[in-house]
Amino acid sequence: xxxxxxxxxxxxxxxxxxxxxxxxxxxxxxxxxxxxxxxxxxxxxxxxxxxxxxxxxxxxxxxx
Length: 64
Hints:
Blueprint: E1 6-9, H1 18-21, E2 27-35, E3 41-47, E4 52-56, E5 60-62
């Protein structure tokens, strides 16, 4: 995955707020990457409503 790439949220690993649950199945654009807990990298995704949330890479699927 790359910055600027379109992705779709396909799953959520952890229990999260309703605001994040609403992003399940939505498409957005990767804005940047972020170190998670030292064992991986997450992606900060911006959605069409200009909201941003970070996800683990296995929660996202690249779309064409």
